[in-house]
Amino acid sequence: MRILVVEDDRKVGAFLQKGLREEQFAVDVCADGEEALARARLNPYNLIILDVMLPKKDGFAVCRELRRSAILTPILMLTAKDSVEDKVLGLSEGTDEYLAKPFAFEELLARIRAFLRRTRDYQPSPFSLGRRRRPRWPVVEKKDRADVRTVRVRTWTACCRASFGILPGFPPSA
To answer: How is the chain split into domains, by residue range?
Structure first.
């Protein structure tokens, strides 16, 4: 998962970068609105964490321009502007979530995971810490050598073949 953090406060940016990298996210950090627009147009991100009060272009303008450019990457505004008017403005400009500073890092992580659950790209890593999950491989029926009985198996090869549409007993599509 690739996240763009747009934060003009270097300490907060470094804190977010360190914490998100420890959670196994790829993180890019930039400090102004124009650089954020350039990076978002150049690189595909899974999430953009955007401050409102930025040099050169504020977060509302960045969000507005991204949406006008048909960049639909989820945007989480993380800002000290916590009035109802600011929240309504941010949400109406196209942001998906609004989190006011100061914030708990655990809450930020929970909101990021909620974003990622809603996108189809996200697959939790079976190697992440905490609750471990084994990948669900497809069940493929194979006949044993004597063709006496059919055996249901789950194998890595079967998983790869099913992913590419190649199943035992069926030639690949041309």
So the answer is: 2-118, 133-169
CB neighbours of 165 closer than 8 A, spacing ≥ 6? 172, 173
Classified by CATH at the fold level, domain 2-118 comes out as Rossmann fold (3.40.50)
The confidence score (pLDDT) of residue 3 equals 92
Map residue 6 onto helix, strand or coil: strand
Question: Which neighbouring-strand residues pair with 41?
Answer: none
C-alpha separations of 123 from 6, 42, 56, 72, 129 in Å = 25, 24, 36, 19, 14
Residue-level pLDDT at 39: 93
Q: Which two tokens stand for residue 10?
A: 């270097």
Beta strands in the chain (DSSP E): 2-6, 26-30, 47-50, 75-79, 97-100, 140-143, 150-153
Q: pTM of this prediction?
A: 0.66
